[in-house]
Every structure is written in structure tokens, then in C-alpha cells.
Amino acid sequence: MARKNLLYAQSGGVTPVINATACGVIETARNHRDQIGKVFAAKDGILGALREDLIDTSKETKSVVAGLRHTPGGAFGSCRYKLKSIEENLAEYERLIDVFAAHNIGYFLYNGGGDSADTAHKVSQIGKKLGYPIQCIGVPKTIDNDLPITDVCPGFPSVAKYVAVSIMEASLDVMSMASSSTKVFILEVMGRHAGWIAAAGGMAQRETGDPPHIILFPEVTFDEAAFLAKVETSVKKYGYCSIVVSEGVKNPDGQFLADAGTRDAFGHAQLGGVAPVVANLVKSKLGYKYHWAVSDYLQRSARHIASKVDAEQAYAVGKAAVDYCLQGKSGVMPVIERTSDKPFRWKIAEAKLSKIANREKKMPKGFITRDGFGITNRCRTYLEPLIRGEDYPPYDKQGLPKYVRIKGILVNKKLDEWSA
User: Fold this and answer.
1) How many domains does the chain fold into?
2) What pLDDT shows up at residue 262?
């Protein structure tokens, strides 16, 4: 009987280390050529699987695959596309089975966040319903750190490190000019419903009075009066005020402060920038000169300052996903289990996709200070080990990181074109 091939795909917003996971998948599969045939990668996520756009990773050299471990972005392309239920769109699932069958695919690994876990869970169920044996493993990834069960989501620690460093450095700039210029600096970070990334900014605080002086979380309803009072107090006490704000902050009516009125491909509100909203409020009510910045794609592509822990965990979940395939498992996800804070220790554990899909992990109340503007020592204990250590990429003679690009050679198509 011919060895089954493996199909790997990336989904949703990319991270500084999602390619490290891809590296873990490909290298591990190559070490088991007696059990796994070729490793294909779907071009642009699940859409590539539906379109039969499959990249043959056997065409990639050993050095390029190894280089993925320190290269940001999504090497094989990602997408925002959510499968409907099998009852709503049977044709999509039949198409996936046709592609799997045409290319002898017996293993499907989907690397993404909450919506991707939902897709992986659905695919894991179609084998029995449609009579095709397919093992489906979800692989965790999201900078938002909002997947349940896992201690941390690969991608988050590096973003956390970037945000903490950025607010620390920018605040030194503001502090040096505050007496005659800018007095308020606002850094907007990602986080639609969970404030993990915003909380990471709090790690820049080493002593009383250190920035950021204010953190605005999605979990805490925005109180304009309390916020303005805190800004004014900080400026009077320290000469300036540094703020980290999550894009998902809401007003007392439950509306996003930054709601642009549009929706993304997953049906989520498209947020239009909360930093300028907050900045204008500071200017109009307090009259302070301000500057604001949006970390946006910079935070999730900053591989040059990635967390060492993050890089190690990202590779580990990729390796574990392949190991699960070899063990005959399906409908599960490798997650990270913290076994000790001091010393920091972790291991890979197994979780059912049904327990992860469509569920969201928000910041615990005990991680946010009573005034709603900072993080507690419990939160610091959680965050500190995650941003520890550096995993710098190699640099070229011109002083830039040596990131790799794949050839991306597609296999020959065997089916008719697919249209949504």
C-alpha cells in the first residue's frame, strides 16, 4: 500500500514564528519517509486545498526548510476563509475529499487560531461522513493568545516581547522631549476581544512610575472620566504619559471605540484605529500634545526580536502534529502545558479540537489591576517566562536578516477548476 501524503496549510493572520511550525512539520515528516510520502503545502490556506493549488515541499532544499525556522510571514500563503457546516455547503467538503483522494492525502494539518480550529474540527469529521479516511490535526497559532486549554499560543510571546520593547523605547523618547513637546504617547496593539497583547506592554515596567502608565483592555469597559483623570495625574507626576491600547476597547454601550462599520472575511468587525480616537480625546479634553502609533503588521512580523521560548514552542507543536499523525490520531491539537513557573518548564499535551473550536480565552480578572489600567503580579508571573531569551535570525553582510523564500512549485492538477 502506498504511503499517504501529508497536506499542511497556514490560516489567518501570520506570526513571527508560524514558519518555525512549518519547519517542524516538514523536517519531522522527512524523518519518517517510511511512513509518510510527500509533504504538500496548500497555497493560501484552505483556499489552496479547495483550488488544488498544492506546493510540493520536496522541491525545497534542506537549507531553505531549515531557514523557515527564523523567517517571518507565512511562507506558503495564508487566508481568511471559514468553511460553513457540512449541512450548509456539502459541495466544499466533497471538493476537499476529491483533492485529498486525487493526491493520496491521508493527513491534513491546519495551522491557525480559533476559526482555523473550527475548520480543522469540521474536516476531521468529514472522513467518516463521506467515506474517505483522513486524519486531521489542528496546529495552534495566534498572536492574540486567545485559544483555550493551551497555556500560550505560538506567536504571542514574540509579539509580547516586541510590544514591551517598543513601549519601553518609545517612552524614553517621549520622556526626553516632554518638557517642551509631546506629553502623551499612545501605542495601539492588536487584540479584538482579549487583552493579552496589551497586557504585555506592562512588562516594560520595572519600577514605580515606569511606562506604560495606562493600559486599556477589551475586558474593561472604557471609562472616559477615569481615563482622563489618570492621564492628567500621570503627566503632572511624571511629566508625560505612555499608553498601550488594545484595538478591541469598547465603550459603555458595548461598541468598539474603533469600529469602522465593516466586516472581515470571518464576519468580525473591521476595526479602524482606536489610537487616534483616544489621542483626539486627550487633545480635546486636556489639551496635551500627543503622538500615536499602530503596531499593526510590525508586531506580528518582527522576527528580528522573537522570543526564544516562542520559537522553540512553535517548532515543537509542528513536530508533535506529525507525531500525532503517525500515532493514528485525528480531531486533536498539540497544546502547550506549563508544568512550572520557577523554574519555567513546559511540555506538549493533547487537546480535542471540539474543546478549542469557537471558544475564546480572555484575560483573567486577577491579571488586571483593580483600577483597570494595569497588570498584576500574577500576570507578570505568567508573561515573564514567555518573553525570555532571544532567537535572532542570521544576518547578511549588508546588515539585514537572512530570510528565505520558497520556490513554491505546484504539483500538476488532476481535477477541474473549483469555484466558490
Assistant:
1) 2
2) 43
DSSP classification of residue 400: S
Distant-in-sequence, close-in-space partners of 12: CB < 8 Å, separation ≥ 6: 45, 78, 79, 80, 112, 113, 115, 116, 141, 142
For residue 195, give the 3-state DSSP assignment: coil
User: Would you please indicate which residues are annotated as catalytic (active-site) residues?
Assistant: 144
How far is Cα 181 from Cα 288, in angstroms, rounded to an integer?
A: 9
- Using CA atoms, how far apart are residues 261 and 269, in angstroms rounded to an integer? 7
User: 176 by DSSP, 3-state: which?
Assistant: helix
Residues 311 and 385: their CA atoms lie apart, in Å, by 13
User: Are residues 189 and 197 in contact, defined by beta-carbon separation less than 8 angstroms?
Assistant: yes
- Asked if 5 contacts 39 with a C-beta cutoff of 8 angstroms, the reply is yes
Range of the domain at 176: 156-302
CATH number at residue 16: 3.40.50.450
Q: How far is residue 38 from each of residues 57, 224, 407, measured CA to CA in Å?
A: 8, 57, 16
Do both 51 and 103 map to the same domain? yes
What average pLDDT does the segment 213-231 reach? 97
188 Cα distance to chain centroid: 16
Q: How confident is the model at residue 85 (pLDDT cuts 50, 70, 90)?
A: confident
pTM of the model: 0.95
Does residue 151 lie within any of the structural domains? no
Q: Are 80 and 44 in contact (CB under 8 A)?
A: no
Q: Which of 78-87, 106-115, 288-297 has the lowest mean pLDDT?
A: 78-87
What is the band of 407 on the pLDDT scale with cuts at 50, 70, 90?
very high
Residue type, 201: G
